[in-house]
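User: I want to check something. If I give you two sequences, will you return the structure for each one separately, not as a complex?

Assistant: Yes, each is folded on its own. Here is the first sequence with its structure:
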Amino acid sequence: MLEPTELLFLLVIISLHVFVFSGTEIKIEETKELLQQSTSKAGIKRKKDVQGDQNPKVAKAAGDTSASRAAYKEYAANSIDERPKGTDLDSKLETQSKELWALKDDLKKHVTTAELRQMLEANDQDSTGSELDLRERCVDAMMFGALSSCPICAGSLRYSGGLYRCHGFLSAWSKCSYSTREPERLKGKWKVPEEINNQYLSKWFKSQKKTKPVRILPPPAYDNSSGSQAINRSSQSAKSESLGDLRVAVSGLPKESMEKFKRKIEGEGGLVHTKIKKDTNCLVVSGVLDDQNAETRKARRMKLPIVREDYLVDCVKKQKKLPFDSYKVEAIGESSSMVTVKVKGRSAVHESSGLQDTGHILEEGKIIYNTTLSMSDLSTGVNSYYILQIIQDDKGSDCYVFRKWGRVGNEKIGGTKLEEMSKSDAIHEFKRLFLEKTGNPWEAWAQKQNFQKQPGRFFPLDIDYGVTKQVSKNRKNDAASNLAPELVELMKMLFNVETYRAAMMEFEINMAEMPLGKLSKRNVQKGFEALTEIQNLLNNNAHDPSVKESLIIDASNRFFTMIPSIHPHIIRDEDDFKSKVKMLEALQEIEIASRLVGFDADSDDSLDEKYMKLQCDITPLPHDSEDYRLIEKYLLTTHAPTHKDWTLELEEVFSLERKGEFDKFAPYRERLKNRMLLWHGSRLTNFVGILSQGLRIAPPEAPATGYMFGKGIYFADLVSKSAQYCYTDKKNPVGLMLLSEVALGEVYELKKAKYIEKPPEGKHSTKGLGKNIPLESEYARWRDGIVVPCGKPVPSKLKASELMYNEYIVYDTAQVKMQFLLKVKFHHKR
């Protein structure tokens, strides 16, 4: 049987684990302090400095087990008694604890809840919460002085888990994460309002000292060096969550990523394979789930979790094996075959309502009763969406209020509700719910007037349904085409919805509740603004570290609220930051493609009509023409020696004449004589935007980081240097590349990266000088003396350059004339 003291220890152990799993911090020393008070209040005499194996003898009773006794001994010996007993700090903590409990008991006996609240208000303290909350705040302030407000957000501080934490909001987007062990206190005595007629408080007020003592806090019992708050666990528990327990199979990851994970995980005792083994924990995949992949099929047969690459990223970052649930991609793969976006009027009825075929979104003038709300707060783990619609019957006046809510990327969490009501009641209910969820009246958003994001509330997303009618990967366009066969195949590549879907899934955009290509330009711009703020914070060391962290979290919250993602996280390193810049650039191109021609596969918007909307003449070149042979030589000759993972095969070449581009380029052609035919590579999803609008420079709201020589249009003279940016793989090996005539003029030469807004006066472009260059004696000349640097790569005479290969940058789009579009097949060796 367990002794009373042992039983109490075990109860606290259980409570400790409950608090750990609920995300609440517990300090070991505070637990000890609690135990001291609890045993005292329970009437059990506590023998000072008793070790875990020196327990007072009491009679045994039924229910005792050797396992429970062993657990008690281990916890008492190792967890609580880590600090030597009998120290001066130990004595001071015990004395302070007795005084705290005595004051708590007195307030409970003699002071009402209303009087507690009055005192807090009179001393500028937070007066919200339960009676217990109010009493705790009063005790702390009466003993040690009233707390000053949070230095970051001016919110109220409260003592919890060995720290004083802010419970306010840093901004409308984030809860404040400020915490401290040494809070500022207000000067002066604790005030007792005159209207309180309480003898106990009057007596206490007269006896209080002018100078308050400083609260003694137990030393931290956890490591907070990395921002995490992890309670010291037993060695056995720590081992069960270590990287050494990872046994993963990896499929489809780039070689560099594979080697990085293998080095870090196997260095800790884990294993990383390319094939599933008997002891494999999970299968890690990159991009879209491939149902035909042998490892995918094997994982399903073995019922292994299939997770995204960021699972390994987070495991390595946190140095432990994490749960699989929030990283699984199976649900995404299963639901990716059909995106039902059925637009009627100016909006789309959500498919979960079951009314897509029989109803439409209610519209009154410019007002559309349809909204998608988003909220992401990394400090609390919130990552939620809320969809609200009024659906009207196509054949009558019946209306329905439809709601769908849940966690982004997790269909298992959330729900739906559909209520039938009159039109007037539906509008009233819609507005009531919108106000409840956002803190703003519906009119403020619908009319774009004075909408203000409210703390802890949702924010509406701008969704532009454009011209799309329905998207289905299973439908084929059977309309006859007057285009050349080569051009028909190119158009199918450009307008293949699966390509765009894969790009959004690669960037973990919430495909389930974000129709393809419908995130508006405004949202993307807001995302860029949040990234720019993060960039400024990362480069600024003037802030206090805790303040800087809070501001980075706030900006990350804004980013992931505007760009709903399956796995939002704090953007705090350069690689992650650059990947988000690339994501927004890709979303910009998808938005352009969606707005221009949509992703409709219906025959009434044929490939010919899509081609016409590009406003760019695209003509296939005969394979036996001089231009084709020159381009093929340029491609085959200028493959850089370090780009060994793939070879290139030219499939087709198309000449380009984008409407209006020649006229804009003409002045530079006449004025700047240094003109070259140079390479530019990009994702397949970017080419609808490129062909219709030309090569463009990053927008002003985009952050500066990620552009080695500033915001401009980048070119190369070695094909493989540009081909890297096509981002092909074994499953999708065909990419598109451009050859453009570039008016370089006087060149500003640099041997290392340098961010500039534009070249110095008298210079028209920037050239990064590489250590390897095309052999100049093998250069060719094209029309009107345009230089084609088609020589084989050779070492340059430069020794001090930090760049491997040449790069060319222009800062004015009019200096570029697109000449050829190349369809290129990548033969990947791995």
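And separately, the second sequence with its own structure:
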Amino acid sequence: MNLKLIKPPIAVLYLLLIGLSAHAQYSAYPLQPVPFTEVKFTDQFWYPKLETINRITIPFAFSQTKERMLNFKEAAELTEESVIAFNGSWQVGNDGKVNSLYPFDDSDMFKIIEAASYSLQQFPNNELEEYLDSIITVVGKAQEEDGYLYTFRTIANKYNSPLHEWLGNNRWQHVEELSHELYNLGHLFEAAVGHHEATGKTNLLNIAVKAADLLYDTFGWGKLEKYPGHQEVEKGLIRLSLCVNDARYLELAKFFLDARGGGPEYCQAHKPVTQQTKAVGHSVRATYMYIAMADIAALTGQYDYQHAIDEIWKDIVEKKIYITGGIGASGGNEGFNEPYHLPNSSAYCETCASIGNIYFNHRMFLRHKESKYIDVLEQSLYNGMLSGISLSGDRFFYPNPLETNGADRHKWFGCSCCPTNIARMIPSIPGYMYAHNKDTLYVNLFAQSEASLQFGNTNVNIVQKSAYPWDGDIKLILNPEVSSEFTLMIRIPGWARNQVFEGDLYSFHEKYDTQTHINGESVGNKLIDGYFPITRNWSEGDEVNIHFEMPVRKIISKEQVVGNHERFTIQRGPIVYCAEGVDNEITNVLTQKYELDAHTEASFSEELLGGVEVIEIEPRDYENIDNSIKLIPYFARSNRQTCPMQVWLSYQQPREMPDSLIIVDESKGDYATSNHVSPWESLAAIYDIYGAAPVSSSDKGSSAFGNWNWGESVGKWNWVQYNFHKVYRISTSQVYWWDDNAGITLPDSTFLSYWDENESLFVPIDKTFSTQEQGTIKWDIFNTISFEPVTTNKIRLNFYGNQKAQGILEWHVYTPSLISSLANDMVQTSSLFNVIRQGNIIQLRVLNEKETFVQIYNLSGHLLFQNNIHQELNYHLSERLPNGVLLIRASQGYQVDVKKVVF
């Protein structure tokens, strides 16, 4: 290897790097993980997934990134035969232009190389290794003489073709924005280290060092003082620095962090990194930056870095994380939103962000030795991250919402960061199982496996026997080469200690003793930072038997999470569950209601979804449905057919509504339809009368209808429609429009139409045309319009938007109401009584002392009182209604008197 150690300008960094091995990334942390290369899964949960990544995902990823590989070929001016065939060959000739969409596409090749390198550790494959060597040869030839490696610019310069608009005319010109020149190199550095560790080869490592030398000569204080627009190069430089023992790269990584400040919040450049205490902006950029800060803090002892990320971690876990471990609520910035803003159907939860969250929490654990970080890691691992890939290994999710009207996994993406990222994540999972220092071994995750580590003065072999995560019985067998005394720290997961995450963002509805036992002894209060310690002299064959009870648990949210009001979700062990329509065709899973104390039952199904634990829960109308609702693990969703899916189950009670409201009753055959509904939104939301009414047009609550469709919904008439099982006379419409402050807003124009059975067409309803220009379409209220009654079983709300798509929180239609009838009575009435209010009493006196039939209604049309009186009635106002309006109707034969009382 033609690498040498160069004396760094910062002596302390140099001293930290002396003598570090290739696996030394974590050597400055109080704990070191057992490398994934030393842990072999033998279980029925993770091992098949690693095998699928090796057998299906990696070859599939290479086949889907041929155009990206061709960019390197074009930059290198090579013929197609320069890369050997693997899982099918690509046959495209030189044309002197880029072959893919985005300047960051180079990074996908580097991530697949890294993924393949990790997979080679568990599944040696000479053909794959040769294929990697052929790709690395092309990458090396695409690199410019001074180390610059960025195919989009190299191709443009060599062939005098147009530059992509993100690039700028000169190198590094837009590096703080969208060029991704440094981002790509960060992934090159990580791939080079991973490939070197897997194969011992230095061919990719030499390319990485050449590029890193160029960066060191170009960037820094007194040089080009710019930061990366997308963080990644920092953690790549740190890995490279430790691999080749060159402190210059560590110094440069720290510069890229310290150069931030005075820039956009989107890329966390709004403040110096040491002054940031809140998670903001693009979530993947953010986690990659926090990872680099953790590494720098560990390597340099820089307290202000650690203090900043400690505060940021609390902000995420206490206010901004989903129950799946996903982060990044907003699709607009692909990142963090305001505290407690965690909507379900529009949740972004990018797969890459979950992966970044895993990396970040692992570093935090190595620093602090507390199980709360592994709790977050495990939740993200089994739910938010694993949801991103299909069971077949060749279909993917980019965002991972917690409620959908039906979402299909994608074969690939134009921006394919998530598939390539998950391909390198899963093979590395064995490396999160264990960590140690000189006299303590931490057991973090549970899976049937075998591991080997050099511990103290001896080598220790550890065997786990377990059916985790479906079963809570785990046996550890320790086999030290020579008897040794050390402490074994066994993590007791938060879910086994009545704690979802640290803080109160989520909590278990029922808290009880889960009876965790180790070697038959209850762990009780003997934990140290979430770990049960066992200190003893260990000999070959010593066993530790762990028993975690795994009851079905109901989880509720903090009140500030508006979208989860009167909702709960189900978790068993580390697995979060959801309801899918394919399992529950007798009902709409998006509108089904439950009781908070509903009965649940768990059972394992070997045939379903490759073998999963299934949970059945009784719905509120169990007697009518005559069947339980089946729940499956969230990670296994969308592996069969397109159908609705929901994580947070509702136990809401219906709001008090006027009797004239036409209820959309799915059990009778009523339903809604539309010309287009976004897959991540819910058409069922518009007739959901459960829970609180909307408080503003921007307050989505739990779900909403939206018809965003990549611009296809803009500039034309769209519609939603109710189809009723019988004919109604309809005279009033109320619609509460939704504005998501992104691609959805209120319409410019609307009108109503009804189905004319005789004409077999939809007919516009007179006097229902409304426009924003007229001021008849308004934010933050129910837009109400009344009209001459129409008789129909179908009514349609038509809307037009010239700039954006439209959204609806609720749409109600009404028959001619009792209130309308009472209003008519008020016009043609006799005077039969007087009414006055005295404190909390409405006093009614009949004028002629004849028997009078009295009825009292609220403005919703609900009857509050009725009876015959002869002279006087004292009606006590409810404390629940301290102010409002009552309508009092009195009748004597054909004479009627109606009066309104305001209180």
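Because they were folded independently, the notes below concern the second chain alone. Residues 46-64 form the longest helix (19 residues). DSSP finds 17 helices and 38 strands in the chain.
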